Predict the structure.
Amino acid sequence: MVYIPHIRGHKLTAYLTTTSPPSPTQLSLIHSSFSLGAYSRFPTPIAELHILANPSYASASLSHASMRRAESAAGSSAPFLVIDDETLTDGGVWYISDFATEDEVEDGEAESTDVLVKIRVRIEHVPVMHVNY
């Protein structure tokens, strides 16, 4: 017999930047898609999704880089997700990591430390990608 304790998964925060608030059905679909990946290999989730509506991020003119800077200024270095209008149609979210480091610039992986490391990924793939990234 194998005992797998209930361990909380990584907490991932997702910010809504949609032009209009998603319906409860759309939010439920986002959560259920995320859960497909979170429970894909284990009986306990490998990640937890927390969707927040930060009014300062709701502006369509606010860039992902500005959001990352604001999060860093608030003391958070954790990656976060951005749910935008396309999420509701294509099922993808932006996974925002961090700005390139000096080592990445020296190794030629980025042009400068102003380069934001981000990727568009389907919601159900986020949990596995996050724990392996």
Q: What stands out?
A: The two ends are 31 Å apart (CA to CA).
